[in-house]
Amino acid sequence: MFADSARIIIKSGKGGDGHVSFRREKYVPNGGPDGGDGGKGGDVIFQVDEGMNTLVNFRHKRKYAAQNGEEGKKRNCHGKNGEDIIVKVPAGTVIKEAESGKVIADMSGGNTRQIVLKGGRGGNGNQHYATSTMQAPKYAQPGQPAIELLVYLELKVIADVGLVGFPNVGKSTLLSRVTNADPKIANYHFTTLNPNLGVVDLEGAAGFVMADIPGLIEGASKGVGLGHEFLKHIERTKVMIHMVDAASTEGREPISDIYAINKELEAYNPELIKKPQVIAANKIDAVYAQDSDPVAALKAEFEPQGIKVYPISAVSGQGLKELLYDVSKLLDTVDSAPVIFEQEYFPELSVFSDEPYTVTYDQEEDEYVVEGPRIEKMLGYTNIDSEKGFLFFQRFLKDQGILEQLEKLGIQEGDTVRMYGLSFDYYK
């Protein structure tokens, strides 16, 4: 069974609580605090497994949880860190937040391993809170909470060229003839219910990966039939080959079919219609009518629009060489970088969305001060010292409306912002 989508629950490990204890040794009846720190919770890590090509495994197991960090111990002993959990997925899997549909991670291109949920930081033991005035603190910091998230996994085929067309126009036959793929072929609608991939090897030219996208029908962009399941696989392709039955063996009209499919592509994602495309007028060996030339009609209609038409026969092989070599040349003109879906949803931000914060101006220090549990927790999750971490924190400040509040208070470039002991200059 082929499965290209799944819903699962993922949960990071909770940070271990800090420990409250005091030294109790012979001749030291009232020793100082020695409570150890809690261990860090385990991360939820997604990793590409090259041996997987479906998401069928997720039909049987729906929840994936990392281990919690251990509580700190006496004698300054640190609690054990929780073990990470590694979730293996096929290349091309897009991980989305289930409710909003926003992308969390795209396991494509060079991204073969990504931490999707970070485990909670362990809490400080009471040894950290001893001061000259409080030498026996009886409290410790709790560990950061776990993050639980319902995610939607969607496998989008990674192919250079996508074969699109109505059912039974010969896409599977073409793929089996020009690649190493072995799709099931029969003369009835919806023979292909999952994408088939094959590699096209060309002598003296760059080869490419071709995908047979299952047959589309009108209304696919609205989810009719298996519309959305099919259309999503076209998003990663760089060039599309529209296949039509030039002989109209089932009574279909090739020109209207092309327009119908383009309409569905545009309705699903307007960017799809901008991709380079060519038309493969298939089954020309079955054209017997002397009074009409369907290929000439297709050329007259689409070539003025910049869409080239290739008469072919997927069965006999007629015209395939010209089609494939020209598609290879067309691929050379488009961006070779893989289509990667950018991150839109940041799980850490959602955890703190209800926590309060304040933005004030300290006249005495001439500094702008941002404080509150939301800020403190976010700083605990973020490595400000790294460029990526700092950019992430900037995004957090913007998304939470903090930058806007600073500007309302009159902050200017070069002014100082203070957050829990951290100070930095403000620049737009």
TrEMBL record:
Please note every region of biased composition (Basic and acidic residues): 14-27
* Top EC class for this record: hydrolase
| PROSITE patterns attached to this UniProt entry | G_OBG (PS51710), GTP1_OBG (PS00905), OBG (PS51883), OCT (PS51881)
Cofactor(s) the protein needs: Mg(2+)
One Pfam family matching this protein: GTP1_OBG
Q: Does the keyword Metal-binding apply?
A: yes
* Keywords assigned: Cytoplasm, GTP-binding, Hydrolase, Magnesium, Metal-binding, Nucleotide-binding
Q: Which EC number(s) are documented for this chain?
A: 3.6.5.-
User: Which positions bind GTP?
Assistant: 165-172, 190-194, 212-215, 282-285, 313-315
Ranges for the OBG-type G domain? Answer: 159-332
Q: Where is the OCT domain?
A: 349-428
Listed SUPFAM superfamilies: Obg GTP-binding protein C-terminal domain, Obg GTP-binding protein N-terminal domain, P-loop containing nucleoside triphosphate hydrolases
Principal place of residence? cytoplasm
Q: Is Zinc-finger among the key words of this record?
A: no
Q: Where is this region: Disordered?
A: 14-43
Show where the Obg domain sits.
1-158
Give the Gly residues compositional bias ranges: 32-42
What compartments host this protein? Cytoplasm
As for family, the record states: Belongs to the TRAFAC class OBG-HflX-like GTPase superfamily. OBG GTPase family.
How does it associate, per the subunit comment?
A: Monomer.
Record's function text: An essential GTPase which binds GTP, GDP and possibly (p)ppGpp with moderate affinity, with high nucleotide exchange rates and a fairly low GTP hydrolysis rate. Plays a role in control of the cell cycle, stress response, ribosome biogenesis and in those bacteria that undergo differentiation, in morphogenesis control.
Q: What is this protein called?
A: GTPase Obg
Species of origin reads: Brotonthovivens ammoniilytica
